[in-house]
Design a protein that fits this description.
Helix content is about 25%, strand content about 30%. The protein is an alpha+beta fold.
Length: about 300
């Protein structure tokens, strides 16, 4: 008996929702006498539901449906309108989340290898550091500052329509020295292990690139950097400006970053990289082992 009542209740839940909406919307436009049949039909339905009487519930549901299709048909939403409104609400929520909370990005280059591979699809938390207006590119609220070691997505300073992803090496006021495979922050060398061989395949050319790999620690982040042993690494010094960041790619010799085009203004920061949710290589197909990989 109770199972039959529950089944009927699920089938007619929309009718009660629609009847309640009509009573709320039209209570100022129609008289109490005009709305009374619908209100009584709802009461009858609720009473049958409380009595666990499937026969009475079925009759009450049919009576309610008869009223909604008859004298109250003018006030009902069409199925198309109801679907369109639901879709519109879903789209608004999705746009809000994309603009201010979470956004998906695809990794187009190898500048962050091995942390991120070409073809990785990642989620970026746009809420980590504050609120940035997406159209004007202005940060209106900031409650946290990027830390050394964070992997961030930002609008490229020289072309804001392009998004870049790099690792934060220096924050405002820091003195950065790049000396070969060593990087110093305020006179302290970034901790890294001895070099070991590392090989990766260039997604564009298919070439196997031979590198040296270091395990590094910066702030709360532990990550891997790679260098091309055939490249010359001149010494260079940088001072991080106020409200700017100094960023570098983990693939140090195949990354255009703050060493070449300058520093990243705070207003350009879109968010912090969180996780790889999908990964696909044009050469090897889906990389299942990378799906769910947290970005450190």
């Amino acid at each position: 008996m109770k199972r039959d009542v529950k089944k009927l209740e699920r089938k007619t839940r929309y009718l009660m929702k629609e009847a309640g909406r009509i009573l709320r919307k039209w209570r100022k436009k129609l008289t109490a006498a005009q709305l009374e049949p619908l209100a009584l039909a709802m009461l009858g339905y609720r009473q049958a539901l409380e009595d666990d009487d499937p026969v009475a519930l079925n009759q009450a549901a049919k009576h309610l449906e008869h009223l909604l299709d008859g004298e109250f048909a003018f006030a009902r939403k069409s199925g198309l309108r109801d679907w369109a409104e639901s879709l519109g609400i879903a789209l608004m929520i999705a746009l809000f989340l994309r603009a201010f909370v979470l956004e998906a990005f695809k990794i187009p280059s190898g500048s962050m290898i091995p942390t991120l591979q070409v073809g990785d699809h990642i989620f970026v938390n746009k809420f980590t550091y504050g609120i940035r207006l997406p159209v004007v590119g202005k940060r209106i609220v900031q409650w946290a500052q990027p830390e050394r070691g964070d992997v961030i997505v930002f609008a490229y300073p020289h072309d804001p329509d392009k998004d870049y992803i790099k690792r934060v090496i220096g924050i405002p006021g820091d003195r950065i020295i790049v000396d070969g495979q060593d990087v110093y922050v305020n006179g302290e060398r970034i901790i890294q292990s001895d070099a070991s061989p590392y090989t990766y395949v260039d997604e564009n050319s298919g070439d196997h690139r031979q590198c040296l790999r270091h395990q590094a620690v910066l702030g709360n982040a532990q990550f891997t950097t790679i260098y091309d042993p055939s490249r010359r690494h001149p010494v260079a010094e940088y001072r991080v400006k106020a409200k700017h960041l100094f960023v570098m790619g983990d693939n140090r010799d195949n990354s255009a970053d703050s060493r070449t085009w300058g520093q990243v203004p705070f207003d350009n920061i879109k968010g912090r990289a969180l996780v790889v949710w999908w990964s696909y290589s044009g050469r090897s197909g889906v990389r299942r082992d990378r799906i769910g990989h947290l970005i450190d």
